Amino acid sequence: MARPSFHILPFTADLLPAAGALLAGRCLGDRLTLPALPAHFEEPAVAKAAIQASLDRDHARGVAAVDGNQLLGYLVGDLVIDAVWGRSAWVRLAGCASTPNQSPELARDLYAALAEGWVGSGCFTHFALMPSTNLALLQAWYSLSFGIEQVYGLASLDQLDLSQPPASAGVEIRRAVSTDRAALASMYDLVWRANVAPPVWGLHLPENDAELRGAYGDLVDDPDATVWLAFLDGESAGFQCYFPGEHSADSLLVPDNCTVLEVAGTHPQARGKGIGAMLTHRGLAYAYANGYRHCLADWRNANLLASRFWPSQGFRPAAYRLARRVDPRIAWGNHNL
Ligand SMILES: CC(C)(COP(=O)(O)OP(=O)(O)OC[C@H]1O[C@@H](n2cnc3c(N)ncnc32)[C@H](O)[C@@H]1OP(=O)(O)O)[C@@H](O)C(=O)NCCC(=O)NCCS
User: Per the structure, how many domains does the chain have?
Assistant: First the structure.
């Protein structure tokens, strides 16, 4: 693949129409591989609005590779500085596209140009949300020392056999009601305990415990939430919670009629007995009966239980959150004494 000559320049508003056309082309290619993805981002105007949404985020800036008057590719990222993410830099799903047949090497040049400013701002944790469908592009990011941290999976409900519920002796599944507040709140730790354990070692901030516990309890009275509870021999055993998928200018993973599986867990002593499969079947069959045709879920790739379970339930990776942590000593370890 020949690499044309190009210059890397700051991304400016006049490049948006051309960038929208590039992103629309990328989305078209992504959907050929994964038909569940939303179709409307293949409209250049819709794709342009998605890039604008990336640019509208706090501390956003971008770079563009230009050959003469032609835009070859662009990369847009923003900074998130808070207690959970620290000082971090993010490329969102609309933040990266290039001309068809462009060498994925271009993404590496664009990252070098854009991330120089991130490191200069003390942002050493870098995230890039990339479609799972473009293997050459993913390879380019892996070769920049990025790895898969989070998986975003879509299930197409039309393609699942939701007619036959799996059965497990002694298991009852039912919708949560207001009086289940305490039962649901008591399961607030199932997900984070799995995600702090090896080999995930994902951060849990203990100071947020009370708020998190309260938020779990509140789900029972949330009119948008559909919460399912599982009981094994009458004892609380697990839960799943679904919300309607929300559409926004840059929700590239939310097709029409999509529900989102937000949180799910089975008590450790009840795992591996088919309860998760029964909850998933009940949740997805109910969603299908209520007009939903897709379900979006996400999980830590290093969470062995989750990353084995969700694909077995019909979820197919649609995008990855790639992560790279630069050694912060580069702030001073870059010259002679
Ligand atoms: C992921 C999770 C929800 C799965 O729940 P579960 O109740 O254990 O699910 P199941 O028992 O239906 O299936 C788990 C595995 O046991 C197997 N299994 C199911 N019934 C079984 C049985 N009767 N005997 C032996 N194995 C069985 C399944 O095939 C499945 O294997 P797979 O994951 O390789 O596909 C659970 O492991 C969990 O709570 N993990 C911690 C919290 C978490 O990670 N939540 C998800 C965050 S995104």
Answer: 2
